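the two lines:
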Amino acid sequence: MVDDAILEMRAITKEFPGVKALSDVNLTVRRGEVHAICGENGAGKSTLMNVLSGVYPHGSYDGDIVYDGEVVRFGSISDSEKAGIVIIHQELALSPYLTIAENIFIGNERASGGWIDWSKTETDAAQYLSRVGLNDNPATKVMDIGVGKQQLVEIAKALSKEVKLLILDEPTAALNDDDSAHLLDLILELKNQGVTAIIISHKLNEIKKVADSVTIIRDGRTIETLDARSDEVTEDRIIRGMVGRDLTHRFPEHEPKIGGELLRISDWTVHHPLDRERVVVDHANLVVHEGEIVGIAGLMGAGRTELAMSVFGRSWGIDISGTVLKRGQEIDVRTVQKAIKHGLAYATEDRKQLGLNLIEDIARNISAAALEQLARAGWVDRNREHVVAEQYRREMNIKAPTVSALVGKLSGGNQQKVVLSRWMYTDPDVLVLDEPTRGIDVGAKYEIYTIINRLADEGKGVIVISSELPELLGICDRIYTLSEGVITADIPRSEATPERLMQYMTRIREEDHV
Amino acid sequence: MSTTTSASPARPSALQRGLAFLSGELRQIGLFIALIVIVLLLQVLTQGVTLSPRNVSNLVLQNSYVLILAIGMVMIIVAGHIDLSVGSVVATIGALAGVLNNKLGVPWWLTIILCLIGGAVIGAWQGFWVAYFKIPAFIVTLGGMLLFRGLAQILLRNTQISPFDDAFRKIGSGFLPDLGGGTSYLEPLTMIIAIVAIIALVAQGIRGRRSRAKNGLLLEPLPWFVVKTAFMAVLLFAIAWLLASYRGTPIVLIILGVLVVGYSAVMANSVFGRHVYAIGGNLRAAELSGVNARRVNFLLFVNMGVLSALAGLVFTAQLNLAGPSAGDGFELDAIAAVFIGGAAVTGGIGTVGGAIVGGLIIGILNNGMTILGVGTEWQEFIKGLVLLAAVAFDVFNKRRASRAGA
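prediction for all of em together
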């Protein structure tokens, strides 16, 4: 046992229907340290923090939380905040139309008898702002300051709640280099003032800079905790802990038959729609051959989905530049209609929000992108539509009694098969599959891999975007790594290891350019 | 094994299949049954006046314009929008028709064409703001509601315009020519139209079944098909009988019939209709599947404008007068008809048939209560309750269904 621990989470287990998100996780945080938590996407980091902060109330998990020497049972976020635990999420929770001062005291207003005391609000706000090193007028609206400063406002807000344990979830994911450096300095400064911090981050160089200890989580379990004072904390060691697991029999055998060049994306640059200054995809170059399965590996916020969607009919981003060539000929993919016509298909990461019409049946969802094929002079042949959908239902093994079943009632795996059927029916040359197995059980994953292999065998090019490295290593012939919008490596299957991928996925720009 | 199409391991009995099928159609059937119950109830309460030949003829005439509006409105609502301006557009087009036909002496047919074009222009105006400027339809058409009410008054110079020439008035209150010369017990043309319609209905039903069977698709149970078709045929025949024993077929009924059949087909079977449902169901997913949502939204409002103009023509012709308050509150009747007809507030769900039945329920309640001498205050009160009850029934049904299915 550590003598002066501010927090001990003991044997935390949290289950969701069908999934064990955390199993027997232990975490000990010393008073006054900066403690980093590392893990792949979906390893259980956020779930653990949600357990700690009361988002998942006491009783919905197993295990004990000992905070400040006492076993605590938080029923909600406000309980944990009263105890001095404040979590700052990746997506900032500020109201853009309110001022900095108003945001700092939301839910915690400086008031007497139900009436806001404005002068106290402003003077107190100014005091907290100076602690985080922000000199802006507290009466400025939050929408008028940049993301970096908004992050500081969030921290000022936490300080106003008399925070003892500050949790930051990917605090620098949306920040530029200067803002990131400033934020990390602030975390160290607050540490000197006695604030303990837990920082969840993908950026290993940042962790090395600020963390006193590092806990690595993989597949909902604690792998190890490294102490910067005694252990040697290297990026390699963290990476090994994050990815080390075996990859046997989870993927169907596949002998690739790779042909000529099919699609080439060159010099592709995309800017953020809300912040023109921010480059989200930076001069990316990418090639897919006939019959080839190409992976794109990257951590959250690396720009994977943004790259795919910007190519597919400019569905994301602004100030997009670069060219797309198919079999050597430049093609115009500026609208989704044109992209589909040129044989591109993009199956979205978020099936429910962006992929499917949940209140319609299977047949109509399958035909949605190729309705013209079923129509004569603008009239849809509904019988043929049903016949086609029925074929896909059987071929893809979609588990539903008929194709008239509503898509909203299907399981995740079956919904994904509907999405794949839709794009297969457009008869594309290149399919981009964004997280094709997210939220799907192991059996259905295997079926989806088999379908991907079959598509490649038909001579199509398949691009798979995935957060799961084993998946990419298991099915791809070649893998691109993406880090902060830059393609950092192009690694053939034979040379790819999880460690090597993770190295390039976390490589930052400076290293890349020297 | 190779010939079977539905490969369910244990085949459920015919009865089970029939019940499962009916529960799927519950919403449609329930609405229809509600309509029939209301008609029968009023028939008893009004001691037979409701279904008298003269009243049935009036029902058709008096509800035609709201039903025309409801057809356009259901498409707008399925796409996830709303149109509050249709009542004002009715007034504007009425005024335009008055200026053209009465003041300028434009012939009836040219008046109609120009008014429909006027409606299309109004729709394009609103569609532009909604589709290309992305202003919520609620705001655009709230503005339109004031704007076109004002425009109507400007065109009318704050007076009323009347009369219209006889040919123009026919589209509102005219009847098809009486082949019996006014002497026969039943007007022959009406009965001929009814019989042709019934033959078309049966033929279409059989053709559809054959085509489905040929493609190896699941058929609705045969007894159900026979009962449904027979019921519809009898209903058509009965209505025709009532109309034929009065003054024959109103011209608006023919217009309405063509619109209902045409727009039902568009919504169910055309690429355009599918795109409307796709946009309403999940806009982003539709766009990422290659649907040009802006174009569809624009065309929907153009279409609504044309239908509003048509409703305006019918209404003006019926009253033989263009007034500044024409069409007041029509938008709410049309919207209520659509929601009683089972459309979802969030878009993606709704049918032309449902909207028509919803509109008929409102129209028949209005008519019956007027015959019974119920004051307008109570009429409004009861209509409000009916709207609420219909939607509450829907919500209740959906919850039950989602609990039953896993």
